């Protein structure tokens, strides 16, 4: 009987830890709306809705019909950089394997409290090492999401780009950190809540080159300002528009709690409690 009580207590407390750590029970959208206010990399990079049909125009009863045409750079809003963007032999958007986009593990490296809004902050190798020491190794296909605390500036273009004497200024990833990332073949993508994985003032784009050189795709302008996103224990669905020759593409990114057989994490844990409870009863009965 003591065994039974201990078993139930252990499973319940494990579930409680998971629940209180994240409060993350529903899917989270990590993409921004794409519209005329979206801040482009260059001031004249715009999403444009160039044609609108909206009216009661379908005969015979004048039923409603609406249609827009849009024009946009590949690299606008929340988007994916295909390896081909900086690697001549790298994959284009439509060639990226589905298993690296769908239900990959999300790794949330949140350095907001160290950045303190400082645009010169650079994520270094030691930040990534510390993450793995705290939360464990990265052993399944994963996408790193680096949270610089920059997402709240997104809709204010000059604050987001950090313009200063015509140069952009926002945090980025260091060259040693990029090398650390490509040494782990389980890391298939890297996302940031800034306009670029390189620091804002870079004009050599070394981090882009190192990561795409290893066929790692990049996600930029990721909406990481959702406080429920835990350090790990969630999965990502990354859906770029399937552009055949795409060097990049606007992308929808969804984070969701892990699912096993379609059941949510909490349900699985309750089921585990039930199974262990029955097993304990049987064991007690055999004795
Ligand atoms: Zn890009």
From TrEMBL:
Recorded coiled-coil stretches: none
UniProt GO MF annotations: arylformamidase activity
UniProt GO BP: L-tryptophan catabolic process to kynurenine
InterPro entries registered for this protein in UniProt: KFase/CYL, KFase_sf
Gene3D superfamilies: Putative cyclase
Pfam family for this entry, one: Cyclase
SUPFAM superfamilies per UniProt: Putative cyclase
Family of this protein: Belongs to the Cyclase 1 superfamily.
Descriptive protein name: Uncharacterized protein LOC103511661 isoform X2
